[in-house]
Structure formats: C-alpha cells, structure tokens
C-alpha cells in the first residue's frame, strides 16, 4: 500500500511539472513582447505611403519606426504590447526592404507629401532640387530600391520630416514627446529582448513551488514539516508580485500590460483575494523593494506608478489562507497517524 502511494506521489509530481511546462509553452507564444507585423503597414504608418492595401486605418505613425535597424508599426486590430492605445508589431528588415521598390514607385507617382530631404537621401545628392531628384529617382529606381543603406537613410529622413511637421503644428511639446517616447521604447526593446529570462525565471519558480508541495509526501524526513511547507505556499506564490513582477495584472485588463508568461494568468485566478485586502496594506506594499520589476516585458512602473501596491491581493489574506491550509494539513496528519496506530497489527509474544 505504501509503495503504491509513493508511486502515485511521484506520478503526481511528474504531472504537476508537466502542467507547468505545457502552460509556459502555450503562454510563451501568447505573451511574447512583439508580434509579427506587416511591411506594408510599416511603410504606411512610418513613411506615410499606402502600399498593397496596407493603409494605416488609424492615421497614427509610429514615434520610432526603426530602432537600431529594428522596425515596428502600430496596429490596433491585433494584440501585442499597447503603447498609448497603440499596438506595436515588429517587421524584419528583409521584409521592409522587399517592399521598398514599391514604395519608391508610389512616391514617384504621388510626391505631394515627399520632403526634399527625403528625395536627396535617395539620390545621394544634398544640393539637388526636389523635381530633379525625382527625375533621377525614376531613372534609377531599380538600383535604389535594392539598396539597404539608402532605405535606412530614407527612413531616418522620413522621421525627421514628420518631426518637423509635428514641431510646426504642436511646437516644443512634440519634441518633448518624441524624446520621452524614444527613451521609453529603448527600455522596452531591451526588456523584450530578455523575454527568455521571464520564461527561465517562471520555470524555476513555479517548478520549485510544485516540488515544495510534493516534497512532504515523497520524503519521510520532510513529512513532519508538511503543515509548515503547505501553509507557506500561498504567500510564497505571491512573493514575485510583491516585488514588482506582473503587478499590472490588477491595474489594466489588457494582458499585454501584465508582463510575465504563465505567472500573470495564475495571479488572475487569485483576483478574488483583492476583495479581502485592507486599505493600509497598499501603503505597506508600496514600500516593498521592486527588485523584480525590471523582469516585466515593458516598463509599466513608469506608466502606472501611481497605482503600485493599490490593487491586487494584500498580505493578510494569503497569510490567513496559508494558516488555514497549514492547520488542515496538521489535522489530517494527526488523524492519519491515530488511525494507523489504532489499526496497527498487535504483536503476539512468543
């Protein structure tokens, strides 16, 4: 009987760890920072050129269409990470370059919105007029359309032209917005590139909690600590959240703002505990060190700092639930021990 129980315990541990792995694999794709974008929409949003029915239906150009040879565009129709109500998606440089010849053809056909500096970078002549540059561009469109360096220069010139038009319309506020947005995006891209760290952290953390749960059942030495170990699990589960990891789960309904992989979806299950929190717990949580906040895929602490610690589960509710689990485990253990003692076979003296 004991051997069967031990086999079932090992199977339970294996099944639990398998669930963690499957959950991480499934949500790793769903929660990835940047989704695959469209080169046509990139050119429409950044350069203002509608290509192959890729019109930007919202008319909102990306503040930074290229970040060190990386290309992003906004599209509200598909989920990725929202930035000021937009959804950014990444496009490969090869895909952007493949559409570049068609962009040039569209610009030659309708050069109304084309800035003279944009034409000059394409023909590599700083002194040429717009009309003369367009004529040279039309004559050499095939070679220019294949040039990666000219495409990069053209994109930079397009951003400068858009910024200049924004400055003329909105004044210094446009420059301040552009600077802040650029800095925010640079932090965002850096964190998104470390997405593998989120997966590794959650695999180690959630796997450790699973092992901690099964350890008292598998090990006779740890059995006496079952009540303590199981009682600590609710609080231990929320420690990353208390330290700033995925705390946007209870601030914003869009999963793109949550950070994390599988962990934020576990937190959503614990949302009813938020109703049990006491007002002063928020002030306590705000003083906790946000050691794990940099693991979030995007710097939500810069956006929602005012809400930090004011939403989500507090500290007392997990402690109370852990105490109840510990007492229940202790009671079950004691009942089982008494039952075994009562039904143990009596030794008959020789």
Shape: elongated
Instruction: Quote the average pLDDT.
Output: 77
- What helical percentage do the residues reach? 55-70%
Strand content: under 5%
Please describe what this structure looks like.
This protein has two domains: 2-30 and 195-339, no CATH class; 35-192, no CATH class. The protein is built from 15 helices and four strands. The protein has helices at 2-30, 39-46, 93-109, 116-123, 130-139, 141-145, 148-170, 172-192, 195-218, 220-223, 226-242, 263-269, 279-286, 300-303, 316-343, and strands at residues 35-36, 71-74, 81-83, 86-91. Strands 1, 2, 3 and 4 form a four-stranded mixed sheet that branches. β3 (81-83) and β4 form a beta hairpin. α2 (39-46) crosses α3, α4 (116-123) runs parallel beside α5 and α11 runs antiparallel to α15 (316-343). Residues 53-65 and 77-86 have low confidence and may be disordered.
What brief labels describe this structure?
about 350 residues; mainly alpha; 4 strands
Entry summary:
With 350 residues, the protein is mostly helical. Helix content is 61%, strand content 4%.
């Amino acid at each position: 009987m004991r051997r069967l129980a031990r086999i079932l315990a090992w199977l339970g541990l294996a099944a639990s760890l398998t669930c963690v792995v499957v959950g991480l694999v499934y949500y790793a794709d769903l929660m990835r920072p940047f989704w695959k974008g469209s080169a046509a929409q990139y050119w429409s949003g950044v350069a203002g050129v509608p290509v192959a029915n890729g019109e930007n239906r919202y008319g909102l150009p990306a503040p930074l269409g290229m970040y060190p040879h990386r290309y992003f565009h906004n599209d509200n129709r598909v989920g990725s990470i929202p930035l000021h109500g937009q959804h950014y998606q990444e496009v490969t440089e090869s895909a952007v370059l493949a559409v570049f010849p068609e962009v040039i053809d569209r610009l030659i056909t309708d050069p109304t919105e084309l800035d003279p500096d944009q034409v000059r970078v394409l023909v590599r002549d700083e002194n040429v007029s717009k009309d003369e540059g367009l004529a040279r561009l039309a004559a050499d469109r095939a070679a220019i359309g294949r040039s990666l360096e000219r495409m990069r220069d053209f994109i930079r010139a397009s951003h400068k032209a858009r910024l200049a038009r924004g400055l003329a319309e909105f004044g210094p506020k446009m420059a301040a917005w552009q600077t802040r947005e650029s800095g925010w995006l640079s932090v965002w891209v850096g964190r998104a590139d470390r997405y593998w760290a989120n997966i590794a952290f959650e695999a180690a953390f959630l796997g450790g909690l699973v092992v901690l749960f099964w350890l008292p059942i598998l090990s006779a030495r740890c059995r006496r600590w079952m009540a303590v170990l199981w009682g600590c699990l609710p609080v231990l589960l929320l420690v990353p959240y208390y330290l700033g990891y995925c705390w946007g789960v209870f601030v914003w309904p869009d999963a793109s703002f949550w950070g994390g992989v599988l962990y934020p979806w576990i937190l959503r299950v614990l949302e009813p505990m938020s109703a049990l929190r006491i007002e002063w717990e928020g002030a306590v949580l705000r003083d906790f060190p946000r050691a794990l906040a940099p693991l979030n895929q995007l710097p939500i602490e810069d956006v929602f700092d005012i809400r930090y610690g004011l939403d989500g589960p507090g500290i007392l509710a997990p402690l109370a639930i852990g105490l109840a689990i510990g007492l229940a485990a202790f009671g079950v253990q004691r009942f089982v021990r008494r039952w075994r003692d009562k039904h143990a076979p009596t030794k008959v003296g020789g």
